[in-house]
Specification:
The protein has about 290 residues and is of the alpha+beta class. It has helices spanning about 10-20, 30-55, 80-90, 170-185, 210-225; strands spanning about 70, 95-105, 110-115, 120-130, 135-145, 200-205, 230-240, 245-250, 255-265, 270-280.
C-alpha cells in the first residue's frame, strides 16, 4: 500500500496525520497505520456531519452515502437513500435537534451515541458500515428521552466521551461479550461480581442507580412488578479502546426488543454503562425487509 501526500479538506487532526505520513523515511507498516488512522478520523467526522444534517438540512454530508448500495435497518424507513430522505421529509420543519456525544470506530464500522429531537426527544445509537470510503449500511436503536436524570443523577448520555487503551480493544471486547453472554443471556449470576470492581459502577440507564447495589435493587423491583427482561442473542460487538458496544436481541415485558449496551471498561472491569432499549415492531409494520439486525 502506498501513501499519498495529497491534502484534502478533512478535520485538523486527520490533516496533521496525513502530513505526518509524507516523510520519505517512514516504513511501509507505519504508512499503512497512519493511513488507517487518517481514514478513521475522516469517517468519524463524516458520520458526525451526516447526523447533524438531520438538523441543519445540509445536503453535502449526505454524499458520503453510496446511493447504489445503501441498506437500511431502521424499520421505520424504506430501504435505500430515497427512504432516508423520505423519513426526514416527514419531520416537522425546524423540529430536529442533533447532539452527537460520542463517536467510535471498529474497522469498517462507525458507531455514534446521540441526543436527538427526532419526532420527539430521544437517545440513539447509530452504526454505519463503510465500504470503499462510502456508507453502505445503517443500523440504529432509539429510546424516548426521560425528562429527569436517573436515581444517581446521571443522564443517558453524560460521562466520559473519548476512548483510551486502544491497544486493549480486543481484550475489552472479549470481557464485555463474556459479561453479556454470562449474565444477560444465560443468567449465570454467580459470575456477576467478577466483572466489577466492587460497587464502583456508573449507571446511565434512566431507571437504575449506580453500583451493583443499584442494579440489584432495580432487578428486584422489576421482578416484583412482573416485568421480565431477557437477552436471547448477541448480534454484534464493536469496540474502540475502553468503549464497547453490544447489539443484542431479546424480549422486554413480553415484547420483541433490541438492546444496545455501551460499556466503558477500566483495568478489565466494567466501570460504566449506557443503553437504549427499543421495541421491534411486528413484521407487517416494517418499511423495509432488511431486519433490525
Amino acid at each position: 500500500m502506498t501513501f499519498s501526500c495529497r491534502v484534502s479538506l478533512v478535520p485538523a487532526t486527520a490533516l496533521a496525520l496525513a502530513l505526518a505520513g509524507c516523510g520519505g523515511s517512514s516504513t511501509e507498516a507505519n504508512k499503512d497505520s497512519t493511513t488507517m488512522t487518517t481514514n478513521q478520523a475522516v469517517q468519524k467526522h463524516q458520520v458526525r456531519d451526516l447526523l447533524k444534517a438531520i438538523e441543519t438540512g445540509e445536503s453535502a454530508p449526505v454524499s458520503v452515502i453510496d446511493p447504489n448500495k445503501y441498506v437500511q435497518h431502521n424499520l421505520g424507513a424504506k430501504d435505500g437513500l430515497a427512504g432516508f430522505g423520505e423519513l426526514l421529509a416527514q419531520l416537522p420543519k425546524g423540529s430536529a435537534r442533533v447532539n452527537t456525544v460520542r463517536v467510535f470506530q471498529d474497522d469498517d464500522f462507525v458507531f455514534a451515541h446521540t441526543d436527538y429531537n427526532f419526532f420527539g426527544p430521544k437517545i440513539g445509537f447509530d452504526i454505519f458500515r463503510f465500504e470503499n470510503g462510502k456508507i453502505v449500511e445503517h443500523w440504529d436503536n432509539l429510546q424516548e428521552k426521560p425528562p429527569t436524570p436517573n436515581p444517581s443523577g446521571h443522564t443517558m448520555t453524560d460521562g466520559l466521551t473519548e476512548s483510551n487503551d486502544l491497544d486493549k480493544t480486543e481484550s475489552n471486547k472479549r470481557v464485555v461479550r463474556s459479561f453479556v453472554d454470562d449474565i444477560l443471556v444465560n443468567g449465570r449470576m454467580e459470575k456477576l461480581a467478577g466483572y466489577y470492581d466492587g460497587d464502583k459502577y456508573i449507571q446511565h440507564n434512566p431507571q437504575i442507580a449506580d453500583g451493583l447495589s443499584g442494579l440489584g435493587a432495580a432487578l428486584k423491583g422489576m421482578a416484583e412488578r412482573g416485568i421480565t427482561m431477557k437477552y436471547d442473542r448477541i448480534h454484534r460487538v464493536l469496540g474502540e479502546g475502553n468503549f464497547v458496544l453490544v447489539v443484542s436481541e431479546g424480549t422486554f415485558a413480553g415484547k420483541a426488543t433490541a438492546f444496545y449496551d455501551l460499556f466503558r471498561v477500566d483495568n478489565g472491569k466494567i466501570a460504566e454503562h449506557w443503553d437504549t432499549i427499543e421495541t421491534i415492531p411486528p413484521k407487517d409494520q416494517w418499511k423495509n425487509n432488511n431486519g433490525k439486525f
